[in-house]
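Note on ligand handling. Small-molecule inputs were canonicalized before submission; formal charges were left as drawn, and no protonation-state enumeration was performed. Where a ligand contained multiple stereocentres, the stereochemistry in the source SMILES was retained. For NAP, this procedure yielded the string shown in the input block below.
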Amino acid sequence: MAGAGTNRQWLFRHPPEGPHDTAAFEWSEGTVPSPADGEALVRNLWLSFDPTQILVLAAPPGAGGVPVGAAVRGLAVSQVLASRHPSFQEGDLVHGYSGWEDYSVIDGHGYFETTKVPAGVPPDLALGALGVTGMAAYFGMTEIGRPTAGETAVVSAAAGGVGSVAVQIARLRGARTIGIAGGPAKKEWLVREARVDGAIDHRSEDVGARLDALCPEGIDVFFDNAGGPILDEALVRLRRNGRIVVCGGTSRYAARPEPSGPRNYLALSLVNGRMEGLLARDYAPRFPEAVAALRAWIASGQLRIKEDVVVGLENAPSALARLFDGSNVGKQLVKIADAPPPVPG
Ligand SMILES: NC(=O)c1ccc[n+]([C@@H]2O[C@H](COP(=O)([O-])OP(=O)(O)OC[C@H]3O[C@@H](n4cnc5c(N)ncnc54)[C@H](OP(=O)(O)O)[C@@H]3O)[C@@H](O)[C@H]2O)c1
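Structure output:
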């Protein structure tokens, strides 16, 4: 914990040249800010990490990027310490845009509006399976992928935050599930915990050959988090009326020069296939429905949660890098400080 009156921060210096460019951030110890009218002072407790942050950090400030010298922004769960905002009271646990720092002043606005963490939801889950991560998995799989019993669903980055939830939702809908992930530990988690029907290690195995072996009839639903060569392998194995959910393309975000598009997209025309993007934010009015379904599956043990918790604000830049070298198993989080006990609900 910081001493009283000290605000430890990661300030933005310049767009990172790659995920491991820690010189893009500067450690600083400033003072705790004061909220003006319409603002609240929060203690940040947990930070969420998403691969698209590398794109935001590369964008000009006017296009959503971070101003040089400001604290790096990110989704967080925080506790309100003082409020001059009509929607938040001292003691509230809130979820929304905050900063890589101990204390932030928030106005409640951002790409996602700040909301109170529902009673009984732990802060880590509010950022992971019950946050944007879980919302992308839930709506991507139930609204776009829509696997049914007997169909084959394949998920890339299947042991990551979004993928680990998405692949289990496909299983819960009765589909045969195949998870693609990097390394033996992720593969083992997929088989033992996520209870997939097959797992592929894309770092040591021939993805195409393994898909042929595990999906001899082809793929009905491909939920893509990775893009790149894995997407190309899935495209040519799509079955008639197959669906590809374009959730993300982490392999592309930091690749320079930017790779060209999927080589095998014309395969869609041979099978009446569909490739459709997902923007979790657009489903915000329906988040409560997804949270209720996911909480019920978690409570019954049907949905296993995997989180990768790095402790300490000082480790925020390296936590972001973990998403690009595949070190993270499950949702990448940084814990800064302890939360108060959850309110039963
Ligand atoms: N559309 C939306 O609304 C929405 C919302 C949230 C997130 N997303 C997207 O969903 C995706 C997953 O996000 P997340 O937060 O859950 O991250 P994550 O999957 O937990 O972490 C990123 C993972 O990407 C994989 N990866 C990294 N470089 C790769 C490469 N070159 N080739 C193949 N795989 C690579 C690694 O897993 P392996 O070790 O398995 O390779 C790494 O662990 C991201 O693309 C994110 O932008 C979209």
